[in-house]
Design a protein that fits this description.
With about 375 residues, the protein is an alpha/beta fold. The protein has 12 helices and 12 strands. It folds into 2 domains: about 5-245, Aspartate Aminotransferase, domain 2 (3-Layer(aba) Sandwich), CATH 3.40.640; about 250-385, Alpha-Beta Complex (Aspartate Aminotransferase, domain 1). The chain has helices spanning about 5-10, 55-65, 80-90, 105-115, 130-135, 160-165, 220-230, 235-245, 250-270, 290-295, 310-315, 370-380; strands spanning about 70-75, 95-100, 120-125, 140-145, 170-175, 195, 210-215, 275-280, 300-305, 325, 335, 360. α6 (about 160-165) links the parallel β4 (about 140-145) and β5. It binds pyridoxal-5'-phosphate. Pyridoxal-5'-phosphate (PLP) binds near residues 77, 175, 197 and 200.
Length: about 375
């Protein structure tokens, strides 16, 4: 499968037809346990659903193939996957270096769940390599990269940060949720491990929660697999199946997300109502050059700052009709959010806070003209504020 191109792997990896009936779609193995042919006689190695399930194996095979990894493990949520990875890699006294705009849930997990167990966390501007050098300590075990970041779409040079981290003996984890493997391949750029919230672009239809860890080599596989089995935050069979179905259309969806977001970014850049447009596809974006080098497309997420300030941003987020006001991202339908009071409410007033005039879009795959017309009517509605 690895000699096929990305779009082909997305459809075929781990998706062999059912040998007993010929069903082209592998079944949902909605079962908790597996009958043994005599004690220890496991058919296909399956014993109990927490330890393994064929539907989950299908998804894990598919995800590993997409990221170019040796294997993958799937979990009940993105944070559950991060938690299993951290539990496998960290010991008291270890330090984790995060970007200063890391996903809030990752920061909360490390500082509030792992902090009391002796894990140190600090944040740094990962797009500034001198700052990264200064932020790495002798006890730094993990450098955690997220690019593009949320919600300002900052770009981190994965290869350059990985080189610094590896020189210090640290493991490089990339949260590839925003780009998806269709647009960015962190393992090929030097990352050791990739994590995902498959809830977002991989699932792609806003109907399932999930997460995954994908491994560039064998070093951590058994340790994380043990955590998956021992703690049990696995993805349920139906959830795994829905995610595999979503993943099959990832390549074509990401192309359309990118095309639509590009059209909206160009439209917004020309409108005086927006003071700033944060989209890595724009030549004016500070991370544009790195993004153009390490991504094969700029993705479907974009943010802008309203020139008229926070009140206008808030009103704008409530004035769209096609863009639904909701948290989350990566589905086929367009969403809008006001980060200071939604996704980033818990970090308001901290070093992770985002500007108060910013609105975030998860641009879906509807007709771009309809989306722009919706944004135009929202501007008209709030005009004069
Ligand atoms: C949503 C998200 C997560 C957490 O995933 P869940 O599936 O919600 O647990 C982690 N990282 C990023 C970048 C996300 O957007």
């Amino acid at each position: 499968m690895s000699d096929h191109s990305f779009a082909t792997r997305a459809i075929h990896a781990g998706q062999e037809f059912d040998p007993t009936t010929g069903a082209i779609i592998p079944p949902i193995y909605q079962t908790s346990t597996f009958v043994q042919d005599g004690i220890g006689g496991f058919r296909g190695g399956y014993e109990y659903n927490r330890a393994g399930n064929p539907t989950r194996t299908s998804l894990e095979t598919q995800l590993a193939a997409l990221e170019g990894g040796v294997s993958a493990l799937s979990f009940a949520s993105g944070l559950a996957s991060e938690d299993a990875l951290l539990r496998a890699l960290l010991r008291p006294g270890d330090h984790v270096l995060l970007g200063n705009d890391v996903y809030g849930g990752t920061h909360r997990l490390l500082s509030q769940v792992w902090g009391p167990w002796g894990i140190e966390t600090s944040t740094v501007e990962l797009s500034d390599l001198d700052a990264v050098r200064g932020g790495i300590r002798p006890e730094t075990k993990i450098v955690w990269i997220e690019t593009p970041s949320n919600p300002l779409l900052k770009i981190v040079d994965i290869a350059a940060v990985a080189e610094l981290a590896h020189a210090a003996g640290a493991t490089v984890v990339v949260d590839n949720t925003f780009a998806s493997p269709a647009l960015q391949q962190p393992l090929a750029l030097g990352a050791d491990v990739v994590v995902h919230s498959t809830t977002k672009y991989l699932g792609g239809h806003s109907d399932v929660l999930g997460g995954a860890v994908v491994f560039g080599d064998d070093r951590f596989v058994d340790a994380v697999k043990f955590q998956q089995f021992a703690v049990g935050a696995v993805s349920a069979p139906l959830d795994a199946w829905l995610t595999t179905r979503g993943v099959k259309t990832l390549a074509v969806r990401m192309r359309q997300h990118t095309e639509n977001a590009t059209a909206i970014a160009e439209w917004a850049a020309a409108r005086p109502e927006f003071a700033t447009v944060f989209y890595p596809g724009l030549a004016t974006h500070p991370g544009h050059e790195v993004a153009a080098r390490q991504m094969s497309g700029f993705g479907g997420m974009l943010s802008f700052g309203l020139a008229a300030g926070p009140g206008a941003a808030r009103a704008f987020a409530e004035a769209t009709e096609l863009f639904q006001l909701a948290e989350s991202l990566g589905g086929v339908e367009s969403l809008i959010g006001y980060p200071p009071e939604m996704t980033h409410a818990s970090v308001r007033g901290t070093e992770l806070a985002v500007p108060e005039n910013v609105v975030r879009l998860s641009v879906g795959i509807e007709e771009a003209g309809d989306l722009i017309a919706d944004l135009e009517q929202a501007l008209a509605k709030i005009a004069g504020r």
